[in-house]
UniProtKB/TrEMBL annotation, chain A:
GO terms for molecular function: transmembrane transporter activity. It comes from Acrocarpospora phusangensis. It is found in: Cell membrane. This is Branched-chain amino acid ABC transporter permease. The keyword Cell membrane applies. One of its GO terms (cellular component) is plasma membrane. Belongs to the binding-protein-dependent transport system permease family. LivHM subfamily. The keyword Cell membrane applies. It is a multi-pass membrane protein. The chain crosses the membrane at residues 6-28, 35-54, 60-81, 93-113, 137-157, 186-207, 219-247, 259-277.
From TrEMBL, chain B:
It holds the Pfam family Peripla_BP_6. It comes from Acrocarpospora phusangensis. Signal peptide: none annotated. SUPFAM superfamilies: Periplasmic binding protein-like I. This is ABC transporter substrate-binding protein. PANTHER family: LEUCINE-SPECIFIC-BINDING PROTEIN (PTHR30483), PERIPLASMIC BINDING PROTEIN OF ABC TRANSPORTER FOR NATURAL AMINO ACIDS (PTHR30483:SF6).
Amino acid sequence: MIAAIVQGVLVGGTYALVACGLSLAFGVMRLVNIAHGDLAVCGAYLALMAAAGFGAPPVLALVLVLPLAFGVGALLQLTLFERALRGGELAPVLVTFGLSVVIQNLLVTGASANPRSLDGGAFALAGFEVGGLTLSWLRTAGFATAVVVLGSLHLLLARTGFGRRVRATADDPEAARLSGVRVRPVFACVAGISVATAALAGMFLGLMSTFDPYSGGLILIFAFEAVVIGGLGSLWGTLAGGIVLGVTQQLVALWDVRFAVLAVHVLFFGVLVVRPVRA
Amino acid sequence: MSTYPTSTYPTRRTFLGALGTAAVAGCSSGLRESSGGTGRSLKIGYVSPRTGPLAVFGESDDYVLGRVRAALAKGLSIGGRGYPVEIVVKDTQSSAARAAEVAGELIQRDRVDIVLATSTPDTTNPVSDQCEAARVPCVATVCPWEIWAAGRPAPTYSYLHFIGTEQEVGVFAGLWSKADTNKVVGGLWPNDTDGELYRRFVTAEPGWRVSDPGAYEDGTQDYTSILAAFARDDVEILQAAPIPPDWVTFWRQAAQHGFRPKIVSVAKAMLFPTVAKTLGELAEGLVAPVWWSAAFPYRSSLDGTTAKAFADGYGRPWTPPMGFNHALFEIAVAAFRAAADPKDHAAVAAAIGTLKGEAISGRYDFTAGPSKNVSMAPDLLGQWRRNPAGEYDLVIVDNTLDPAIPLQGEFTPLR
Amino acid sequence: MRYFAVFVLVLLASVPYTLGPGVEQSLVTLFSLVAMATWWNLLAGFAGLTSFGQQAYLGVGAYGLYVLALAGVDPFAAIPLAAALAGVVALPVSVAVLRLSGGQFAVATWVLAEIFRLAVTLSPGGDTGVSLPGISGYMPLLRQALVYWCALGLAAGSVLAVWLLARGRYGLAARAVSADPDAAAASGVRVARIRRVAYCLAAAGAGAVGALLFTHTLYVQPGSIFNVQYSVLMMFMVLTGGLGTVEGPVAGALIFFVLQQALSAHGPWYLVLLGAVGVAVTLFAPRGLWGHLGRPLFPIAHLRET
């Protein structure tokens, strides 16, 4: 029981790591990025390429992947998302969904549909014991990364000038513009950060399990559930949401594995029904 | 409309009533057959997963098809007539819906004379259903016969040549009893018919205690709870039947959590050298079923190639489906020869049911299977071992069901 | 115009006597695409709800048909029953999902499809597919012709039904809701009701398509029928054809069908193209091909502000 909860918290950290970019984009730009999961998968493929191309271990690949992902995110915001967000409620959904289709199938043409995984070496296969529990280093690292990423995002938004501009823009882009905030670069940065965290999460997922070009869909669903359960647009809420998902999954699995994922989806639906959610 | 004798258009729907039946019968007269006959050539349709999560099964297809095309380049001479042979290949993309669709295309557009389907129920079952409905002969393989035969009406046009799960569980159990264990078997069984059958037969096998955390979903990313259940029950024998990517995920997470049973027997996923390569040293000592290997003492009935030569020609590590996929073509050719008219679908289908012979995969016998239209193959066991070149080979360690195939090593537990 | 439509229908209905199964096979695919797109358009184009979860009702239709056929109902007679079942299932579901809109509605419906898929895999056999019972008595040619006629009927019936809905009072109210829910509510339109009707009808339409696809493929597997890829197709067809028009989805289905036939040999590249075209159309030509180029064949314009 306690083991299940501890493992659930660790698993939940991974969900939160994927979800925080989604949460950020929604909180600031009101953008539900359907392609978020696919961008995470792209991160994993980039790390795979770095490993195959330069023999770089995953940690070093980060140095390459993260700035690239940031750039891609900013570029997507300036070219696609910005225009889509002006086009009403349907346009962003359709545009990001279209983007998701493009990414998936580009990955299929480039890397085939065969499942891949990242080789994290001995570290990725090792575990350690705490109070009779065997925990995986990799999962623990994933959880710690989630907390660090969410914490730094929180500090960034709460304590810095950039954060103030982001919050002002999120509250009212027009007012922010009038008071001298340059909205476009702010949004571009936020989209960049969002995609960079997605890529980071994708690399962790690639280390923990296998991925293929179509993995993005389920990743998005779990991330979205974490965001909704944790309260839309709240970063710490997203972490809580991820943990709730992870723990639910582990506890239900104690009883029967078959119901674990189903329970998570049903919980999400329950939250939707019980709680008023307004965009 | 009633001028057409309704009895010649059998519909077993009675509730439509006489009027409805007559109407349907009326509509059905004058329906046009597929256009464009296939001429004199014999067309063979071949359906397999070449992309997607099941892609490892179709990995050797290009090589196998190349060998078969070369062997049949001169065509077939049957009853004094020469028939060129044409092979039409379709990819299922690892999807059952796509498998049904491409089978329909083979039947309706390509007008093939026989359909061959291979690798997992998601290919063999939809393709067999399409062939039954269209009354075109079909031979399938690489799907345990219990899954193929279950939930379908008794087949007349479709056939299967492969092993069975119950038989395989028996062979596994024989191996488990060779090692000194606490007799607790952990079941890593997915939520599909395959998993259900392993659960049923392992539970029915006397003398073993089963630890069953429940059926997991294909594509599951996190096995923590299953590993916890195995650790709680002190599992010393693992019996798994996952698809290849799930096995890689599970076995790595097992290493992270320090789960290392004495015997690990893995159906389905550990058939493939590519999976062993991905796992690296984690593959050492895993037990897998062997229904075909390069060491089989059999030859191709098309051109006499030995299993060894066939495997060596591949240029990459051989995979078990290679042999059975090749055997499909041998069975198709034997059926064409046995039928009075190879272009007559009903005659070819009936002819398959009379076949008894030997292919590169071993003996097949459609006259005495465990179920209608099934020919059962024997199942051996192998263990993955690192060879001096640093690669992993599947070494045969159990030949109970076909002693004609030589043993290559002794079974050793993982710890 | 109407005589022309009837003429085309008669011509298409005679295909089993003239062109045979090879052509039927392709046209069944085309007709099911037309029906799928038409019902998705009722949701997205008229009620302003983008669902990525219509595959949930494809699955309900297919598995509903399986249960009915298992109980001895003729598979073809069971198609309308399966469609009705999908519509009924959608009613309680709509209470939950219609609390949302935009991207949240989209993802929530997707999650719903996953819930349905997982629920189906709880039955014996799990993720392994099932074969359609009760079909072996049909002669192959007759079965194919019946599937073909059902597909034709479904496609034509769907277009007609959505046209009738769209040109009536309901259509006017739905477009008001789609354009601005708050303003519509203020002018006395019962927004929730409009959306609920659209959701349930679209579900029934998808259910019919799912059941039809099952009679065509004869084998259905949860992972295939509940795949989000179907929503991708629906979205692409409606967007390129023209969101919120009656002809748009038909045009979109034709475009997709031609692309698929022409480009499927190039593997996933055509899907890349599809996604890119979808994005481009949304951003630069939101009224779609028909909205920009075509003349309404099925006019709903007397109710549309021009």
